[in-house]
Amino acid sequence: MLLFYLTLTTTFPTLLISSSARQIFREIDVNDDNTISQSELGAWFNYQDVEYLKKNAREHFTMFDKNHDNAVTWEEYANIAFGSNHVDTCKEVYDNKTPPEFSKLGKQVQDAIMTAVRRWRAAGGFSMSQEEFTGFTYPELFQHMRNIVVAEAYQTYDTNRDGKVSAEELLVKKFKLTSRQVEEFSKGKFDIKEEPNMLGLKDRNGNGIFEKKELSYWLMENRRLMRKKESEGLFKDMDSDGNTRVSLPEFRSNSNKIRWSSIGRFIDIKEEL
After folding, report:
1. Which of 15, 48, 57, 69 could form a disulfide with 134 if both were Cys (CB 3.0 to 4.6 A apart)?
2. Main-chain dihedrals φ then ψ at residue 165, nearest 5 degrees
């Protein structure tokens, strides 16, 4: 969940792993029983996904840390994220001021600056360490950022500004569901198989309103649940004999499926000679 400038970048971090199928198999097989269980594959999948996000944040941290002092100030961030001509405006907004120049900016830029300010304060303050910057960049990875993640959801989806996020507001605006589908969802009858981004999202009491706890669980857990679902499908494909374990030969013959997965762009499985 990167902000403004970062959402416009298309660069990816360098590879996390470049090894043979055998070496990767051994890494996944944490209990050394020479097979891979579904839980082992799922844990590895999630770990690599989180490591990718952290490495991506580290590389952006280096980009923003212009004076190489192992810290990124709000000024350094604003200079790149919003442009050098808006640095003074961003500094004043951070200091709870409303400079005239701010009102002249487009709404998208205003919202991005305010979101960045809220995250920046929650993650660490005016000057950030690498770990704090990672929390700023990907707040859903850190429990102490839970409140800011939920606050951003309210800012985005509470379209009538009544302090609530209704099923209609979220499901129609984000997922483009029809009124009938919204009703089915509230009754627990909507099939979310085709919408993995909805994993973890539930209107538990069926009142048509997503409570803060419901939103919080979805926002903080959705990515992990998506990787879990993906790894379960991958495990099923690899387990060709259906014995609920994946052997090294099964892993080798299906390693191309990892290349096609969501983590495949940063996992290089080398051919074995």
Report:
1. 57
2. -115, 105
| Cross-strand bridge partners of residue 166 | 209
Task: Tell me the H-state helices in the chain.
Answer: 4-8, 21-28, 38-64, 74-81, 87-94, 100-103, 107-123, 130-137, 146-157, 167, 173, 179-186, 212-238, 248-253, 256-259
Q: Whole-angstrom Cα distance, residue 220 to residue 242? A: 33
Strands 17-20 and 267-270: parallel
Q: DSSP 3-state assignment of 162? A: coil
Q: How many CB atoms lie within 10 A of CB 153?
A: 19
H-helix or E-strand spanning residue 270: strand 267-270
Band (pLDDT 50/70/90 cuts) for residue 10 is very low
Mapped onto helix, strand or coil, the DSSP state of residue 246 is strand
15 has pLDDT over 80: no
* SS3 track for 72-98: EEHHHHHHHHCCHHHHHHHHHHHCCCC
Contacts of 205 (CB under 8 A, 6+ apart): 211
Q: Hey, CA dihedral for 27, 229, 220, 76, is it positive or negative?
A: positive
Residue 25 has pLDDT above 50, yes or no: yes
pLDDT at 6: 47
pLDDT of residue 195: 86
Please count the other Cβ atoms lying within 10 Å of the Cβ belonging to residue 126. Answer: 14
- For residue 13, is pLDDT > 70? no
pLDDT digits (tens, 9 = 90+) for 202-229: 988 888 899 999 999 999 999 999 999 9
